[in-house]
TrEMBL record:
Presence of the UniProt keyword ATP-binding in the record: no
Transmembrane segment boundaries: 49-72, 78-98
UniProt-listed InterPro entries: DUF1003
N-terminal signal peptide: none
Protein name: DUF1003 domain-containing protein
Keywords: Membrane, Transmembrane, Transmembrane helix
Pfam families tied to this protein: DUF1003
Keyword Transferase: no
C-alpha cells in the first residue's frame, strides 16, 4: 500500500495565495523571479539609486543643452521622458510584486504568531490550574509551623499535667 501524499511544491501551488506559472510551455521559477524583483524594488528605494538617477539626468540634460554637436535628445527631452516612462512601467509592477511577497510572508508570520499565542495561552491556563490544585493540596498538608504549634500545645499540656506530681503535697 503506497502513501500518495502531495509534495511541498504541489501543496504550495494548491494554495490560492501562491502564484503559479500561467505559461505552460515555459518552466518559470516563481520564487526566483520574486527574489529578483524584490532585490530590484529594494534598490529602487535607496538613496544610492536616487543619486545615480539624478547624476544621469543632469549629465543627459547638460550634454543635450551644452554640447551642440552631441544633441541626441534636443530640448523637450522626449527620449528622456520615454526612458522615465519605461522605467516607471517596469518599476511599478516590480514594487507591487515585492509588496505581495512581503504580504504573504507577513500572513504566514501572523498565522505562526497566532498559533504560538494560542499554545502559550493554553499552557498558561494549564499551569494556572496546576498551581491552584497544588495550593489546595498544600492547604491539606501539615506545615512545619502547624506541627510546631501542635507540639508546643502537647508539651504545655504535659507540663501542666506533670506539675502537681512533682511538687510535694503541703499540709
Amino acid at each position: 500500500m503506497s502513501d500518495k501524499r502531495p509534495s511541498a511544491a504541489q501543496t504550495a501551488r494548491a494554495r490560492l495565495d501562491t502564484p503559479g506559472s500561467r505559461w505552460r510551455g515555459f518552466n518559470i521559477d516563481v520564487e526566483a523571479v520574486g527574489r529578483v524583483s524584490e532585490s530590484i524594488a529594494r534598490f529602487l528605494g535607496t538613496g544610492k539609486y536616487l543619486v545615480i538617477q539624478t547624476v544621469i539626468v543632469l549629465v543627459w540634460i547638460a550634454l543635450n543643452v551644452a554640447a551642440v554637436g552631441l544633441q541626441w535628445d534636443p530640448y523637450p527631452f522626449i527620449l528622456l521622458n520615454l526612458a522615465f516612462s519605461t522605467q516607471a512601467a517596469y518599476a511599478a509592477p516590480l514594487i507591487l510584486l515585492a509588496q505581495n511577497r512581503q504580504e504573504n510572508r507577513d500572513r504566514v508570520s501572523l498565522e505562526e504568531d497566532r498559533a504560538r499565542a494560542e499554545q502559550t495561552k493554553a499552557d498558561t491556563e494549564f499551569l494556572a490550574r496546576e498551581l491552584a490544585s497544588l495550593r489546595l493540596a498544600v492547604g491539606e498538608v501539615a506545615t512545619r509551623d502547624y506541627l510546631r504549634r501542635e507540639l508546643e500545645e502537647i508539651k504545655t499540656l504535659l507540663a501542666e499535667r506533670d506539675e502537681p506530681e512533682t511538687q510535694p503535697a503541703r499540709k
